Amino acid sequence: MAESHGNAHGATAHTEADGGHKAPFPPFQKETFASQLVSLTIAFVALYLISSRLALPRVRQTIDDRENTIKGDLAQAQKLKDDSDAALKAYEAELAAARARAQAIGNETREKLNAAAEAERKALEERLSVKLADAEKTIASTRAAAMSNVRGIASDAATAIVQQLTGATPDSKLVDSAVDASMKG
Length: 185
Prior knowledge:
Low-confidence stretches: 1-12
Radius of gyration: 66 Å
Order of helices and strands: EEHH
Largest sheet: 2 strands, antiparallel
Shape: rod-shaped
Structural class: mainly alpha
Helix content: over 70%
C-alpha cells in the first residue's frame, strides 16, 4: 500500500491511499473517532484512578506534612521569639537595677570619700595650726633674741662709728639711750 519514492536528497516514506491520494491522519479518521474517544476515556479514567489512589494521597500527605512542619516551625519560632522578648525585658530590668545599684554605690562612696576628705582636711588644718603656732612662737623668740642682739650690735656699731669719726670713745650710757630711742621709733 505504501510506496517509497526517492528524490535527490534521499529516500522518504509516506502513506498514500490506492488511487494516488493521501490518507487522512489516523486520529482524525471518521471511522475510528468513536473508538478513540472510548479509548481516551478509559485511559483517562484509569490514569485518574491510579493517580487519585496512589500518587495524589502521597502528594497530599507530603503537602500536609510540609504544612504541619511549617506550622510547628512557626509556632516554635514564635515561642522562641516570646522567650527572647521576655529574656530581653528581664535583662533590661536587671540592667536598670544594676545601674541604680551602681549609682547608689557611687553616691555612697562619693559621700564617704567627701566625709573622709573633709575630716582629713580638718585634721590637717589642726596640725598646720599647731605647726603655725609653734612657728610663730619660734619666730617671736628668734625675733626677740635677734632684737636683743641687734641692740647690742647697734650699740657697738654706734660706738665704733662715733669713735672713728671723732677719734674719742663715747659714753656707753649715752650710746645705749640713743640706740633705745632709735629702736622705739
